[in-house]
Every structure is written in C-alpha cells, then in structure tokens.
Amino acid sequence: MRERFSTTDTESFSRIRAKGAPRRGRRSERFDDHEPEVVFGFDDHGAYAVAGDEYADFDGGHENHDGEHDHHDDSHDDNYDGPAGADRWSTWDQSTPTEKGPEPRPAWVVTELAAVDTELGLVKTGKEADVFLLERAVPGTDRRTLMAAKRYRDSQHRMFHRDSGYLEGRRHKESRIARAMAKRTAFGKEAIAAQWAGAEFTALCRLWSAGVAVPYPVQIMGTEILMEFVGDESGTAAPRLAQLRAEEVDVEDLWEQLGRSLSLLAGDGYAHGDLSAYNILVHEGRLVIIDVPQIVDVVANPRGRAFLERDVRNVGAWFVSRGLPEQRVGELVGALEFDARLG
Q1: Average pLDDT, rounded, for the chain
Q2: In whole angstroms, what is the distance from residue 293 CA to residue 204 CA?
Q3: Among 312, 310, 307, CA closest to 335
Q4: What's 247's DSSP letter?
Q5: Please, what's the largest Cα pairwise distance for the chain?
Q6: Is the dihedral of CA 257, 213, 206, 297 positive or negative?
Q7: Residues 65-102: tens digit of each pLDDT
Q8: What is the pairing mode between strands 280-283 and 286-289?
C-alpha cells in the first residue's frame, strides 16, 4: 500500500495501492432492459453519444453503494497484460488527435508509448466527478509527470443537479438521445456524462489556447480527462483561493490575474458559469481557474449575462472580505459585459 499523502485541501483522502490495480479497457453491459447501449465519442464539437454494441473507456473500477471505488485485482489473471508495478499502460495512443491537448504541448507532457500510468490517490470528490492524482512515467528513465485525472461518475452515483440551466443553448444532434437526457434515464445520464466531459475538455483546450489561466488539458478518453496537476512534485495539491488568508497572498495581484483571465473568456463570448473561491487554485502566486464543464455561451444562453455577473460577484466577495474596494467588483462586471459585447 502507498502512504497517505498530505494535502492542503480539508477533504480527507487515501492513496490506493500501486500494484495489482485493474487495467482499463472496453466493457459492454446493458443499462437496463429498455434502453439501448451507447457509444461515446468525441469530435470537434465536443462529446457525442450514439447507439451501438458497446461503450468504451469508463473507469475500470466500480463504485459500491457507498460511492467508494471497488477495484478488482486481476493482476494475477492468466490474461492480464498490464504493466508490472503500475495500474495501466499509458493511454496516450488511445486518444485521437482531437482528443489530445492543443499544440505546442508543454515539455512535461509524456507522450512516449512505453510510459505507464500509476494512480497515487484521490485528490478531490465532487457531485459529478472525482479527481485522482496520476503519475505517467517511462520506466528506467527520469521522464515522469503528475496529472489530475478527472473522472465523471457512473449513472447511479452522479448528481447533475444543475443540468437544465447550463445546458440551455446546447443541443444534441440526435433527438432520441436528447429525449433520454431530458428524462434522465440511465442511457440519458451516460450521454450527459459524455457531454459534460467533452464540454470541459473542449473548453480547456479553447481557454488554454486563448491564454486563460486554466490547467493544460492533456487528453480525454471517454469520461476521463487528464490535465495538468496544479501542485508540487510531491503530490500536494495547490490550495483553493477560499482556503487562503489575506496575509498569505497579494490580493491586488490575484484580482488583476483574475480580471485578465475573465476578460479573455468574455472576449471569446463565454462565462465560467459557476465561479467561486472554491474552484480557483493558487500555486506559488499563480491563479488557476478549474472546473469548467458548465462554461456558458453568454450570447446563446438566455441567462448568459446573469451567469457572467454572478461569477464576478461570487468570487469578488472573497476579495472584498480581504480588503478589495467593493466598487472594483462592479467595475469588473461592466468591463466583462463590454468585452462580451452584451451592450
């Protein structure tokens, strides 16, 4: 067993074993007797789902009724072909070009096919997804990197409590799938998961390329997104903005960083949609915005202006409580509405 890692997050977590973990791969199962099976894919417009014979690349572990991952140790099976001492081979070659991060890629991204992936533990739990710490390394070399693996949960444990508002302006290309999503059937929930994962990966790629302070998106496979781990080399995650005291940071500098990123976002016609001091990380003075699956098109979404203003006021409350003049919040709202050409 690996040791427990320390973290600045107040949520507790434990490391999983490094050896004997299950390998990921394809599996096929019926959601129920009345719904067709579904295949999730990814194209230039994000995730999509179509009826098919199987679906691919969900987390190899299963959750029990308590929401915990129950991994089956198949390392001793006769047909086990996974790497010794790791959880799986690198999945880099299993993602298509549109399922990989934008170029030029940072030098730390490990693309060698000889690399292996090892899970080091749970970083964060959420209502829709869990984030794990994952090491991708080339055995026998010093090529290694830490990544955050965000995995959207299975349909029995997922809580997409904000779907209706955020999905306004998004339409699925197949009416049958759109109906299943609206009814929240098991089939529909899996389609929603694929749409959320695809939307987040697409948003990260777009925002990274535009210069917004977000984690670099490495790749997507099914409902798993691998992205830059924001933290130190020991695996300690960067603290959330909400955890920091005024004396620990340069409040003015962080507000300027936030304004630059939100201006770039608004200029591209978008708002974060759920921004607060809890989904902003601060690592060595660098502000990083996370959790962007609900990114809102402020023009197509009839509530776009409201989402934009709420983002600024929610996170602005943290800054005001730490000395920022309150009028600066209203000024930023006005500037972003201008950037987004909302009049």
Answers
A1: 77
A2: 9
A3: 312
A4: G
A5: 67
A6: negative
A7: 344 444 444 444 556 577 888 999 999 999 999 999 99
A8: antiparallel
Beta strand pairing call for 116-125 and 129-137: antiparallel
Neighbours of 156 (CB within 10 A): 11
pLDDT score of 91: 96
CB atoms within 10 A of CB 66: 7
Kindly report the number of other CB atoms within 10 A of residue 321's CB atom: 11
HEC secondary structure over 321-343: CCCCCCHHHHHHHHHHHHHCCCC
The token duo for 5 is 């890692």
> Quick one: tokens of 303?
């509530």
Q: Number of C-alpha atoms within 13 angstroms, CB side, residue 101?
A: 23
Rounded Cα–Cα distance for residues 318 and 294 (Å): 22
DSSP state of 237: B
User: How many angstroms separate the first and last alpha carbons of the chain?
Assistant: 58
Q: Which of 55-69, 106-120, 126-140, 318-332 shows the lowest mean pLDDT across its residues? A: 55-69
CA distances (Å), origin 75, targets 7, 18, 85, 116, 214: 30, 12, 10, 15, 36
Q: Sign of dihedral through CA atoms 302, 304, 309, 313?
A: positive
On the 0-12 / 13-18 / 19+ scale of CB atoms within 10 A, 245 is exposed
CA distance 41 to 133: 24
Other residues' Cβ atoms within 10 Å of the Cβ of residue 302? 10
Q: Please name which of 71, 54, 53 lies closest in space to residue 62, comparing C-alpha atoms.
A: 71
For CA atoms 155, 27, 46, 131, give the dihedral sign.
positive
Buried b (16+ CB within 10 A) or exposed e, 159-188: ebeebeebbeebebeeeebbebbeeebbbb
